[in-house]
């Protein structure tokens, strides 16, 4: 038996999400390999069917992808309410609480998630967990990175400043901030932890998304098909 192919499952999930987009919609576009498959398919639909949509990208990377696929772009100023958002996740629990931010786009992703009437989370099976336990990315003001780290330690984390691939300096987000990755082990009360983290002065946002379960539908791609969880 061959090993599961996460890219195949991601493509299935992304393509299925792109199929849910209707003419005239304004769509939040997340960041990451799974949602980029959705953007690829949206580009095909624009070219083949004349689908007319506008996308709100959550990062410069997402904006560049969207342009490459021919998706017209707009922003939250023009469209403070979005018909739909499509995004990936690093972990999803049974109540559709999420950990996001491995791609360092969590701040704009949360703004877009908040602005959307409906949110499609596109994932492969490795993302589904009973209890959130992945590292939580925290976007912090560089000026306060030291004090924020101490406060995160007091909450039980082992904070690590995220560095670039060459390890010669911190990752800088699209908003000019740093990312601190925080292992907490199994997170028994994600909502409380989210509130505690974002109340620290100097924290801009964190990658726990716990308040959006009602409007989230998960599209779980598998190699041979997909499942819709809502
Ligand atoms: C970026 C994110 C991504 O959605 C998350 O990391 C999932 O990425 P991928 O689809 O590549 O597995 O939160 O900030």
Automatic annotation (TrEMBL):
Gene Ontology CC, one term: cytosol
Catalyses which reaction(s): aldehydo-D-ribose 5-phosphate = D-ribulose 5-phosphate
Keywords of this entry: Isomerase
Positions annotated to bind substrate: 31-34, 87-90, 100-103, 127
Pathway listed: Carbohydrate degradation; pentose phosphate pathway; D-ribose 5-phosphate from D-ribulose 5-phosphate (non-oxidative stage): step 1/1
Coiled-coil annotated residue ranges, if any: none
InterPro entries: NagB/RpiA_transferase-like, Ribose5P_isomerase_typA_subgr, Ribose5P_isomerase_type_A
Keyword Isomerase in record: yes
Taxonomy, superkingdom: Archaea
EC number: 5.3.1.6
UniProt key word Lyase: no
GO MF term set: ribose-5-phosphate isomerase activity
Function: Catalyzes the reversible conversion of ribose-5-phosphate to ribulose 5-phosphate.
Record NCBIfam families: PRK00702.1, rpiA
Family indicated by similarity: Belongs to the ribose 5-phosphate isomerase family.
HAMAP family, per database record: Rib_5P_isom_A
Subunit structure of this chain's protein: Homotetramer.
Name of the protein in question: Ribose-5-phosphate isomerase A
């Amino acid at each position: 038996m061959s090993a599961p192919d996460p890219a195949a499952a991601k493509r299935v999930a992304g393509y299925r999400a792109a199929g849910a987009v209707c003419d005239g919609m304004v769509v939040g576009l997340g960041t990451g390999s799974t949602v980029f498959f959705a953007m690829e398919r949206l580009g095909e639909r624009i070219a083949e069917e004349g689908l007319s949509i506008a996308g709100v990208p959550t990062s410069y990377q997402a904006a560049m992808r969207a342009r490459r696929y021919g998706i017209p772009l707009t922003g939250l100023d023009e469209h403070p309410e979005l018909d739909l958002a499509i995004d990936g996740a690093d972990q999803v629990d049974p109540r559709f609480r999420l950990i996001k931010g491995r791609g360092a786009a969590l701040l704009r992703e949360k703004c877009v998630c908040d602005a959307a009437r409906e949110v499609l989370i596109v994932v492969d099976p490795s993302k589904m967990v009973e209890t959130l336990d992945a590292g939580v990315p925290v976007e912090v003001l560089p000026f306060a990175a030291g004090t924020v780290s101490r406060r995160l330690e007091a909450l039980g984390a082992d904070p690590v400043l995220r560095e670039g691939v060459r390890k010669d300096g911190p990752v800088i987000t699209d908003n000019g901030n740093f990312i601190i990755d925080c292992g907490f082990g199994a997170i028994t009360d994600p909502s409380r932890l989210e509130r505690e983290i974002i109340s620290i002065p100097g924290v801009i946002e964190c990658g726990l998304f716990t308040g959006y379960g009602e409007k989230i539908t998960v599209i779980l791609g598998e190699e041979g098909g997909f499942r819709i969880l809502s």
